[in-house]
Write a structure and sequence with these properties.
Length: 379
């Protein structure tokens, strides 16, 4: 590290943080900030107040500061507009905090507007981390008539950061094609601790199939349950782990009962220790991600690192498809229960040894990714 950057102060703005809210973007922030802090950077994460007690906590040399109270992320199964507005307004308080660079998570987009004001007044560079692009069509599908306003907020916000870190080539291409941001975008993918994952012991309970992720409508776990119902006709003992929580959980539990596969499906909910999630992966045979919208898809490469082939959708909004080598590290399919059932049956009968799939994940080791981050920030 260059000596004059030894104590560079980086402010990271993200409403949600790991361990309190577990998702791909939260895990990325968790892994990168700890590694930068360990190397000597002064890292403060500005977030909602997820914890009890004082306004700040420190973990592994990373300081977490509650710049706003906690507001629920979701309202009626959708991201809360109230939460986005209030958190963005609270981020104006950054005017009274000291930092050299401010890095902002692009969601909710409104936070980019208030943080840009701070960036200009304090004459500090603002970097945004972009996980996925929604675009006009998806916003209108998600919010109806209000979706057009949300789309223009997204489109304008993409020009506010001085530079953008995109987590995948998929997202980089959509930033240019759909939103028009052509310059100042740098692709730095998410990563994993490959060696640590290899040392995780399999869970005692075993399963044929496993899904890991938030239980949201676009994840299409209902299609997976339908596929399990089809497979059960020829494989009555087929088993599925569903790991994660979210607004669709109650509906999915009911669907499993209606399909009469409740004895084939185990809903684990939210697991505090990510190693427990990895242990369940290691004790399974095939990883399924029927999602049609992923900004990256970290669970896909985690599954490969755990020795599992991956089945995911060949959908234009699913960046996870770019992580899978079709017919090698997994299978790409259309979103269809029968096609998914056939793909599952195929892999259960023909999957290779775990070491074969592990090899596809090694290039995403954090030791390689953090070098790119440090170079980007000139650390």
């Amino acid at each position: 590290m260059k000596e004059n950057n030894q104590n560079k102060k980086i402010a990271v703005v993200s409403d949600a943080i790991y361990q309190f809210n577990k998702g791909g973007k939260e895990k990325r922030l968790y892994d990168i900030t700890r590694r930068l802090a360990e190397s000597g950077c002064d890292i403060t994460v500005y977030c909602m107040k997820w914890w009890k007690g004082g306004e700040s906590i420190t973990e592994d040399k990373v300081k977490f500061y509650a710049i706003s109270p906690y507001y629920p992320l979701y309202y009626k199964n959708r991201r809360s507009i109230k939460q986005g507005v209030f958190f963005a307004l609270h981020c104006l308080k950054l005017l009274w905090h000291d930092f050299d660079i401010v890095e902002v998570d692009h969601m909710p987009h409104l936070v980019l507007f208030t943080t840009k004001i701070v960036s200009i007044l304090k004459r500090k560079p603002m970097i945004a981390v972009w996980h996925e692009v929604w675009g006009k069509e998806y916003w209108q599908k998600y919010l109806g008539k209000v979706g057009l306003i949300a789309y223009w907020i997204e489109k304008i916000s993409v020009f506010l950061p001085d530079k953008i870190i995109s987590v995948s080539d998929h997202t980089t291409a959509k930033l240019e094609k759909m939103l028009g941001r052509k310059k100042g975008v740098f692709t730095i993918p998410n990563g994993l601790e490959f060696a640590s994952i290899k040392n995780i012991s399999p869970a005692e309970k075993k399963s044929d199939l496993i899904f890991v992720g938030r239980l949201l409508s676009h994840k299409n776990v209902d299609v997976l349950l339908q596929a399990v119902s089809i497979i059960k006709e020829t494989k009555p003992d087929i088993s599925l782990f569903v790991v994660g929580d979210g607004p669709e959980k109650e509906n999915l539990v009911k669907l499993a009962q209606e399909l009469k596969i409740e004895n084939n499906v185990s809903f684990f909910g939210f697991l505090e220790d990510h190693n427990d999630v990895l242990g369940l992966m290691r004790s399974s045979r095939v990883f399924i991600s029927p999602s049609i919208r992923e900004g990256f898809g970290i669970t896909a490469i985690e599954a490969n690192a755990c020795g599992l082939p991956v089945i995911t959708t060949d959908h234009e909004d699913n960046a996870a498809r770019d992580l899978i080598v079709n017919n090698e590290s997994g299978l790409l399919i259309n979103l269809d229960a029968k096609q998914l059932a056939d793909a599952i049956d195929n892999l259960l009968n023909s999957r290779k040894d775990s070491e074969y799939y592990e090899g596809y994940a090694e290039k995403f080791d954090w030791k390689n990714i953090v070098i790119k981050i440090r170079d980007f920030y000139q650390l």
